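Ligand-bound model needed. iron/sulfur cluster.
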Amino acid sequence: MSDNNLLSPNSAPHSDVEAIKSRSNYLRGTLEESLKDRITGAISEDDNRLMKFHGSYMQDDRDLRNERNKQKLEPAYQFMVRVRAAGGIVTPEQWLMMDRIAQRYANGTIRLTTRQSFQLHGVIKWNMKNVIKEVNDELLSTLAACGDVNRNVMCNPNPYQSEVHEQVYEWAKKVSHHLDPHTRAYHEIWLDEEKVADSRDGEEQEPIYGAVYLPRKFKIGFAIPPENEVDVFSQDLGFIAIHENGQLLGFNVAVGGGMGMSHGDPKTYPQVARAIGFVTPEQLVDVAEKTVTIQRDYGDRAVRKHARFKYTIDDRGIEWFIDELQQRLGWKLQETRAYKFDRNGDRYGWVKGNNNNWHYTLFIQNGRVKDEGGYQLMTGLREIAKIHKGDFRLTPNQNLLIGNVSSQKKKKIDQLIETYQLTDGAAYSALRRSSMACVALPTCGLAMAESERYMPTLLDKLELILDEAGLRDDEIVIRMTGCPNGCARPALAEISFIGKAPGKYNMYLGGGFVGNRLNKLYRENIGETEILNELRPILNHYAKERKDGEHFGDFCIRAEYVKEVHSGLDFHD
Ligand code: SRM
Ligand code: SF4
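Prediction:
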């Protein structure tokens, strides 16, 4: 793109997805017809693009792919359904609904995601309407859980911190609600609501997004220092709450983060968001809206790989963005305020909040809620939901917080935790408790290697090394993904593995412990034996020669295992 083109909203030929959105009539396309087609368990390719905006992806079970192919059967088509709730907070009734539909229509498990949403896997086409209807009946939604719109807004999940948390959560909900799509297509298709007479007559509009929505997905997160569980620097738009003596003063605004890249394509890279100024709570919604509209107008609609907000900003420069934002706002941002993060992981077990209620964070390996062998996690949580009067909070690290338990109820919930041996992870290494892995195989169509199904096995082996080195209780942030799209935010981990091929991973080191620095490639395309052989000496070296309080990622840089990465622009150097 020439510099001239960078100055005006892009006019290059648009990608095929833009054409699909444009002729979709506000996300309707032929989805209704596709859903009714009895000949196949699939929907058409164009409708599949639109389906994402409705919160679902068509997938097929990749474990069964070859066998079905041999038998000349169509792939085992099924749908992933993503259910969003800003900040990941749901009621016990909503939890029970998710549990019920997971058993009745999906694969009997619930997946808690890295963005504080729920996912169901294995829903067949004929059950999609029931699933979405039941979700909406319980006042949750799948609309805009995926697609080229603002996704689930993340928010620090810990209710114990102070009233500041409750206030920030209310602002997160406001921003989320403000950016909801207005199309009635969702209500017509899934909830059988009355059809809009003719949406093309101007009766229906998307005031923020317009008829072709955004060039790409858009993500917003709210962090409350000193905690950065939401990985605020990975967000397209991050808000860092600034508070003093229990008072919320406002938010630092950070822009242009993102985790995805493609192997072998240096034009794609993960990036950290940069703080550009401070705004008061009352100015927040306006800032979010104007930022989204800038990406709507200037984001790359020709090349989807280059369409995220981070590229819009990096191509044009952060100063350009600040000017454009201030022009649209009609006022200037204040100077960024001081803040300090001390972690991006979860704190487990019971804590007492300022409101005298209790909160219990459970360790849920890679966010998968299921009953397996002797570990009846799903049943245990169902029994808790039946008596719980507070809330459930999905954490950004794929764990679950049982929130707002009164002192009287705590005993009963403790008994259930005991009966079902639900764990806060205390028996595991701190490394495992600081781990995340994306879904990957068998459902993710983009996975190049295992992730969720393999990470626990790798951790078993790494724990032996940690024991030798005396590092069992040291928190080291470790993440794995089955491909470089970055769904478990691996580029911000102190150790990460990104899938390249079956059983092979790129290994990265040196991310910042609080989620503030990208890591760097250390070894390429290695399997388990090499992973263990590479990590053993580094972990031992760390155990012997770290400075007081030095985190593993920082040590990897000081000991020159990898160079420090200051920006995504030098990620591949
Ligand atoms: Fe993701 C695509 C799962 C968080 C970056 N992601 C996918 C799809 C839908 C695969 C696909 O397009 O066919 C995966 C579905 C797998 C499955 O079978 O369930 C998928 N992403 C997930 C989840 C479930 C991972 C998890 O283990 O929890 C997370 C759901 C979040 C939610 O509730 O909304 C999830 N994805 C993320 C994150 C982390 C975050 O948002 O904090 C990222 C990196 C941050 C970012 O966006 O920069 C992420 N997912 C991607 C990308 C790369 C996007 C890019 O432009 O760089 C893709 C591929 C794409 O969009 O083309 C992708
Ligand atoms: Fe799938 Fe890749 Fe995301 Fe993992 S990182 S869920 S493999 S798209």
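Residues 150 and 405 are 32 Å apart (CA to CA).
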